[in-house]
Structure formats: C-alpha cells, structure tokens
C-alpha cells in the first residue's frame, strides 16, 4: 500500500514537470547582470533566478567564452552557470538561450564589458588620506523628485528622526567642492544599495538588492558618475558593504535557493554581539554560535557564507562594484560576524584582482589585541590570517572620547592615548589603522567633549598628527551634536542647509554661527596642511610619557620633523624642551602650523591652557 502511494506521488510529480509549458517558466534576473573581459580570475558563476528556470538548459556561442557547468539546486527556481572567459576574449554581447528540449523558452543578453585599465583606479587609501564619513540620506537632498518612489515600502518623512529624509547622490555630487575645500581626501559613504524595507530603511544596512543603488538615492549610473566627479577633484570613494546580513526584503527571502542559504534557528535568535568570542581561546560553542549565526536583527537575515554558492555571490558582488564604479576602498560592516574563513577568502580574491586595494573592517572591540586579531598579521596563535588591510581603532576612539574630559593623571587624560598607542606592537602595520573620534553609531564627538571647542581642537589636532589614517564624521566640522541614547536619529541629523527651506546653509560661511566658523576654519587649516605634508602623513612617531599635563610627540620623515604638544590642563604652561633633545636634534627654530607663530629658540615652548601646538621644526 505504502509503495503504491509513493508510486502515485512520483508519477504525479513527473506529470506536473512534463506538463510545464513555456509560460510556467520565467527568467527574472541573472546576477551579476554583466561582467568584464580581462579579469585576472577568468571564472564567473552566474546565479539565474526565475520560476522553474531549472527546467531549461542554457546555451550560447561566443568566442573565448566557455560554458563549464550548469548546477541545479534544491529550489527549481534557481540555476547556477559556471563560465570561463578566456584571456583574449573581445568585449561584447552574447545571447544566452534557455532551452527546453529544442525550444527556446527565454533568453538574456549578457554583456562582457571592457575592463577599465586606468592605473589611477583602485589605488586604495593610505596615510595621506583623511576620510569623511557621510550618511547619504542625511547630507543633502539634491533631487526632491526621488524622495518617494512609487511601489517602494517607505515614504519620506523628515519629521521622523528614524525615517527617510530624502538626501541623495545628487546632493553629494553637488557638494564635492565644499568637501574638497574642507580638505578631506576620501569619502566613506554609508550604504547606498536598495533597502526596500517598511521602516528604518534610511541607514542602508538592510540591503534588498546587492546589484542596485536605492532609487531614492539615484541610479547605479549616478553612483558611477559621483565616483568619477569625486576622482576629478582628487577625492577617493570608499563603499560601505555588509556581508553578515541582508534585509529580509531581499528578492530571495521567501524563496531561498537552498535551505542553508541563511543561518536558520527554530525561533528568532539574536546575536550576542560579542565579537570577542571569535578570537577567544576559551569561548564556548554556544556563545560562538550565537555570535556568528545569531541574527543581527529581525529584519536582517543572517547569511551562511559557508554555502559556497552564496560565498561566491558575495565575492563577485564586491568585485562587480569595484570595477563598475571604480571604487578606491571598501568599509566592511560587522567584520567578526560572518565566518572568518570566508572573510579571509573574500579579501584574498579582492587583492588578487586589485593588489593595491584597501578594505577597512569594523571590528568593534574595546581592546587592542582583539582588534589586532582581524588585521592581516602572522601572529595570531590560532593561525588565523585575515588578509584584511585596515581596521578601525576602536580602543583609541574610546581613549580620545575620555582623554580631554579628564584631569591629567597616571592613567587619566592623555595618558590614555599614550597607553593605547604603546600597544601598537601587536599590529603588523600600525599605520594602516583608521583612527576616529566618532561615527554614525555613537555620540557625536562635540557632545562627548561637552561642547567645549578647546577640547575639540585638542582631539582633532591629535587625530590629524598621530599615526594612522584619520576619519571624521559628517558635521564634525560644524560641531554637530547628538546622543546615541536618544535614538540613532539624534546622531544622524540632517546637515543644515541640505534641504530646500532650511534656515541656514552650514556649507557656507554666512550659514554658520561664529563658533561653527571657528571650528570649520580650524579643520580646514589642519586638513589642508596635512594633505600636503608628508611628515604628518607618513612620519615615524616618537612620543613621550605625558608630563605636567602636556603630551609631546614627534613625527619624522626624511629630514623633516614635526613636534606636537597637547596641553590638556586648564593652565598655560612653559615646557622645558631639553627632555626632547633626541628628536629635536639640530633643529633650531620652529613655526606653528595652526597660528603661524614662530620660535627662533627651542629651549622652552609656552603653550596656552587646553590647546594644541603643531610645530614644524627647521635648522
Ligand atoms: Ca532626494
């Protein structure tokens, strides 16, 4: 009886599949939608999605391109096609025919573009750069006509701090001159890809299409043009990517290619957000699983990058964007959350294609060794080698946030900066660390220093002259404030003047208050000086234990020396310079970078209360 029932089921399935007509088979999309000739890796895996597409077989004919393998998976609506693109293949289009028997059911014109071989592209970022982090929804609304897109789930609502406010790529392109004038050299743009989610979609961290810019920001072409325009002004572009999770509105969410595409739990299980468990030699399996396989949020599906098809999909997606828009770098979100071996493979594949490229990983960990685990190095005891070129310096961010609010002491005030930097021996290349005082996830820096411009200037002078690659957050130059505990909207406010009808345009002198102009002028002077000063950028750092409330350090590059003094006390000080003889060397005079004050004798230096001095020394 049982056998009989099974037999009927098999026959029924067979009949259903035989009776599928052309109209029951559809092709929705192929990812990546196009590719290039001349890539170092000649292999490409296409993900083909469409109702019952696995009923068909693809064929095409194009010189130099070989169909290697067609792979069917458990969901009949998917097909993976592996192709090889020969070294000398000519760029062009070819038609992929999807056939059932001899009948062509559907077709797709696949384009192989000419790879852009401009040597100035994909050069990465380094110590010569200052990165400006910008949230596209909150910077400038250059095109109000795209604020609402018919059919998309969330409408613009500027009165809602957590809603979409309408900022876009046009607004960013329109203000490249402002950013260039400020003196930044690279822009890290918070995620630009489609987030068709019912709420909180403005921040971009719940991507619903990895191959499409959110239409409320503009088109893919607008993004490519923005990068081109930025490059013309000497500004690099760093793309924000998230490989730990995707929005639950992703097109495949309700129709996954394979069950193990996501890390699935019997019921919703949140990550414990304890990134340290990944490197912790004593971590329990329970904690590790929750960390890596738990979901970041209900609306953010946790990806299983151990699925090799998904892994390939993500890796190719990065290469697609690097090549398509001409990126200079990537900022990768939540770095310890995806499987670490996948992340190492991802980095390896990117560097194979673009050897000078840079990726900065967000390993949000409080202690230096925990962060260092993620930077490419040979010293991890468990043998893990990340291949990652850059990490953010979270420990130094915490120290900067406290140092200038505190009284100077054995372990307080600038001693905190000294202590964090003194641990740099755990990093393979400490210069590759990205330093910052705030970002889109925490209190704004001016709020952290209790809106005290002197503390602000001390911190900014420190960031621009110590080791590493500095990153500032949009609005820092005009003293924007915000507290994370009031909600993320408070730390991601609109840049004043970016919207029609705004009372003041803070991108202009007239639109800023006197205090804002003081901050802006300070930053502009500091950044533009740094932009042209190799010693500030690449110099070897020597620092001295903070003494009598003053932290003194030097940067040396070839025969040039910069001396920095940070007076973190409320008293004016006169510093006896004999302690610093080994770095002052035979330099006799000095000139202040910020005030243009000069010294024709370096035996003592006077420094005002709560202020920085950056002095270029000369013989
Ligand atoms: Ca807009």
Overview of the molecule:
By secondary structure, this protein is α/β, with parallel strands linked by helices. It has 3 domains: 2-114, Immunoglobulins (Immunoglobulin-like), CATH 2.60.40.10; 131-257 and 306-494, Alpha-Beta Barrel (TIM Barrel); 540-618, Sandwich (Immunoglobulin-like), CATH 2.60.40.1180. It is 26% helix and 23% strand. The strands form 7 sheets. It has an 8-stranded parallel β-barrel. Strands 21-22-23-28-25-26 form a 6-stranded antiparallel sheet. The chain has a 4-stranded antiparallel sheet with strand order 1-3-6-5, covered by helices on one side. β7 and β8 (103-114) form a beta hairpin. The protein binds calcium ion.
Q: Tell me the overall shape.
A: elongated
Name of the top-level CATH class of the largest domain: Alpha Beta
CATH architecture of the largest domain: Alpha-Beta Barrel
What percentage of residues falls in helices of 4 or more residues? 25-40%
Total count of strands: 28
List the bound ligands.
calcium ion
Question: Regions with pLDDT < 50 over 5+ consecutive residues?
Answer: 1-17
Distinct helical segment count: 17
Please state roughly what percent of the residues sit in beta strands, choosing from under 5%, 5-15%, 15-25%, 25-35%, 35-45% or over 45%.
15-25%
Decide which structural class fits the backbone.
Answer: alpha/beta
Distance between the termini: 101 Å
How many discrete domains? 3
Mean pLDDT score, rounded?
96
User: CATH topology of the largest domain, what is it called?
Assistant: TIM Barrel
Largest sheet: 8 strands, parallel, barrel
């Amino acid at each position: 009886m049982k056998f009989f029932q099974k037999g009927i089921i098999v026959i029924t399935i067979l009949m259903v599949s035989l009776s599928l007509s052309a109209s029951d088979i559809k092709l929705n999309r192929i990812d990546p939608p196009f590719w290039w000739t001349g890539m170092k890796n000649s292999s490409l895996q296409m993900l083909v999605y469409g109702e019952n597409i696995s009923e068909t077989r693809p064929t095409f004919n194009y010189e130099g391109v070989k169909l290697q393998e067609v792979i069917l998976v458990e969901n009949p609506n998917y097909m993976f096609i592996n192709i090889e693109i020969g070294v000398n293949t000519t760029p062009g289009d070819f038609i992929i025919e999807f056939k059932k028997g001899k009948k062509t059911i559907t077709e797709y014109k696949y384009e192989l573009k000419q790879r852009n071989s401009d040597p100035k592209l994909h050069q990465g970022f380094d110590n010569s750069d200052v990165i400006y982090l910008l949230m596209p929804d909150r910077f400038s609304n250059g095109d109000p006509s795209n604020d609402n897109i018919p059919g998309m789930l969330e409408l613009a609502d500027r009165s809602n701090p957590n809603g979409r406010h309408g900022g876009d790529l046009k607004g960013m392109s329109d203000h490249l001159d402002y950013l260039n004038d400020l003196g930044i050299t690279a822009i890290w743009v918070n995620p630009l890809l489609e987030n068709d989610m019912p709420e909180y979609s403005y921040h971009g961290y719940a991507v619903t299409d990895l191959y499409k810019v959110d239409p409320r920001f503009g088109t893919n072409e607008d993004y490519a043009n923005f990068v081109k325009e930025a490059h013309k002004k000497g500004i690099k572009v760093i793309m924000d990517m998230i490989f730990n999770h995707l929005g639950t509105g992703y097109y495949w969410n309700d129709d996954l290619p394979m069950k193990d595409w996501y890390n699935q739990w019997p019921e919703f299980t949140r990550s414990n957000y304890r990134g340290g468990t990944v490197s912790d030699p004593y971590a329990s399996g329970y904690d590790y699983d929750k960390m890596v396989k738990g979901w970041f949020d209900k609306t953010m599906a946790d990806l299983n990058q151990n699925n090799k098809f998904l892994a390939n999909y993500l890796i190719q997606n990065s290469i697609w964007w690097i090549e398509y828009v001409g990126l200079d770098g990537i900022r990768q979100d939540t770095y310890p959350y995806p499987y670490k071996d996948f992340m190492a493979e991802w980095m390896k594949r990117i560097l194979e294609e673009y050897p000078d490229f840079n990726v900065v990983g967000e390993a949000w960990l409080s202690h230096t060794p925990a962060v260092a685990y993620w930077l490419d190095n040979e010293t991890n005891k468990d043998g893990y080698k990340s291949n990652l070129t850059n990490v953010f310096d979270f420990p130094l961010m915490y120290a900067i946030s406290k140092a200038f609010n505190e009284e100077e002491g054995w372990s307080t005030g600038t001693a905190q900066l000294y202590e964090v930097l003194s641990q740099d021996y755990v990093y393979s290349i400490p210069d590759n660390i990205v330093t910052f005082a705030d970002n889109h996830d925490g209190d704004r820096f001016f709020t952290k220093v209790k809106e005290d411009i002197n503390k602000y200037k001390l911190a900014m002078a420190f960031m621009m002259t110590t080791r590493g690659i500095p990153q500032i957050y949009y609005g820092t130059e005009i003293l924007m404030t915000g507290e994370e505990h009031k909600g993320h909207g408070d730390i991601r406010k609109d840049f004043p003047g970016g919207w029609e009808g705004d009372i003041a345009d803070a991108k202009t002198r007239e639109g800023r208050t006197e205090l804002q102009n003081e901050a802006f002028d300070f930053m502009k002077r500091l950044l533009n000086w740094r932009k042209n000063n190799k010693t500030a950028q690449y110099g070897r750092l020597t620092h001295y234990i903070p003494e009598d409330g003053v932290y003194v350090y030097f940067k040396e590059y070839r025969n040039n020396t910069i001396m920095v003094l940070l007076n973190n006390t409320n008293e004016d000080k006169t510093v006896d310079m004999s302690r610093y003889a080994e770095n002052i060397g035979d330099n006799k005079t000095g000139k202040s970078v910020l005030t243009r004050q000069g010294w024709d004798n370096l035996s003592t230096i006077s420094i005002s209360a709560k202020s920085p001095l950056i002095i270029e020394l000369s013989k």
